[in-house]
């Protein structure tokens, strides 16, 4: 990861000062670096020691960071990772344009791999992520969204880059097709579980620990799995309360909605969905050669369910 951070710092250089300033602002905020970590762990588990793993790990982090910059503008977010978002600090135009810079810089870096397969995986992932963003936008304030519709969004918007990161590790290692698919399956399951737990924490987390405002999803009119499960299990009055809040993007009833989510057992339902995805990831990781890196992938999936931020 130190090597990846060195690549990130080197490739953020730009002759335009504001580009480097905004890019460094959001990347220096830290984050979990899960997508680069997946690529490194899988390539190492499969015996790959190519320096390209550091370059491509930086590429996926750049793509992820670009999506964050654009997301915060679309969602009008003000807090991420415990501090003001880039759009709050530098304005929407700078955030959008620097996000574009990071996307294009990522594609420049992809060329270093000299592998059309790598290009195809990342180009496809970037396109699917954009589709997921638009799909989520279409679903805003739609209280009729069901679990299948919810999963379709997060498997496009969030899990696709996890999947691509894991697949790239296998491609770098020249893994056979079946093993590559197991790695991609691990990434998709991990990405899905990560987002489901993230949605749990919006109703069962601590704002200080999470580094973002609780209730942001509701304010944006997002029908996430905790709300979907609560509406399925709640009384008519409870359903109406949640439906009205989603349709209006209102947080004035947030405390009441948190109580409904907890009383109906919706958090347990949602955590069980995340646990099923984590188990799917573990099953995929068990198909890799037995070594400390593969065991690290298993532990990562198991610990995901315990995250509080």
TrEMBL record:
Keywords: Magnesium, Metal-binding, Transferase. It is an enzyme of class 2 (transferase). It comes from the Bacteria. GO terms for biological process: isoprenoid biosynthetic process. The lineage of its organism: Bacteria, Pseudomonadati, Pseudomonadota, Betaproteobacteria, Burkholderiales. It comes from Ramlibacter algicola. It catalyses: 5 isopentenyl diphosphate + (2E,6E)-farnesyl diphosphate = all-trans-octaprenyl diphosphate + 5 diphosphate. GO terms for molecular function: all-trans-octaprenyl-diphosphate synthase activity; metal ion binding. InterPro entries: Isoprenoid_synthase_dom_sf, Polyprenyl_synt, Polyprenyl_synt_CS. Belongs to the FPP/GGPP synthase family. This is Octaprenyl diphosphate synthase. Its cofactor is Mg(2+). Its EC number is 2.5.1.90. Pfam families: polyprenyl_synt (PF00348). PANTHER family: ALL TRANS-POLYPRENYL-DIPHOSPHATE SYNTHASE PDSS1 (PTHR12001:SF69), GERANYLGERANYL PYROPHOSPHATE SYNTHASE (PTHR12001). Supplies octaprenyl diphosphate, the precursor for the side chain of the isoprenoid quinones ubiquinone and menaquinone.
């Amino acid at each position: 990861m130190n090597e990846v951070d060195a690549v990130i710092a080197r490739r953020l250089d730009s002759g335009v000062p504001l580009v480097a300033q905004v890019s460094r602002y959001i990347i220096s905020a830290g984050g979990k670096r899960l997508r680069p970590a997946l690529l490194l762990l899988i390539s190492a588990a499969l015996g790959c020691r190519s320096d390209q793993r550091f370059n491509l790990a930086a590429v996926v982090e750049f793509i992820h960071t670009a999506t964050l910059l654009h997301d915060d503008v679309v969602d009008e977010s003000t807090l991420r990772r415990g501090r003001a978002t880039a759009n709050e600090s530098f304005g929407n135009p700078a955030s959008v344009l620097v996000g574009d810079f990071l996307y294009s810089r990522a594609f420049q870096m992809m060329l270093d791999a000299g592998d059309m397969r790598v290009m195809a995986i990342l180009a496809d992932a970037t396109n699917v992520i954009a589709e997921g963003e638009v799909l989520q936008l279409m679903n805003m304030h739609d209280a009729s969204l069901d679990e299948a519709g919810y999963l379709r969004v997060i498997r496009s918007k969030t899990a696709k880059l996890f999947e691509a990161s894991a697949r790239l590790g296998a491609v770098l290692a020249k893994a056979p097709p079946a093993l590559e698919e197991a790695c991609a399956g691990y990434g998709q399951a991990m990405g899905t579980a990560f987002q489901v737990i993230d949605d749990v924490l919006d109703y069962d987390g601590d704002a200080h620990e999470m580094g973002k405002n609780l209730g942001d999803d509701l304010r944006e009119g997002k029908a996430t799995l905790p709300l979907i499960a609560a509406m399925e299990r709640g009384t008519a009055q409870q359903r109406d309360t949640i439906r009205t809040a989603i349709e209006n993007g209102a947080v004035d009833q947030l405390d009441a909605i948190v109580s409904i989510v907890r009383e109906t057992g919706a958090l347990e339902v949602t955590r069980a969905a995340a646990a099923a995805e984590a188990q799917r990831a573990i099953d995929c990781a068990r198909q890799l050669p037995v070594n400390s890196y593969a065991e690290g992938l298993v532990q990562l999936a198991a610990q995901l369910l315990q995250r509080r931020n």
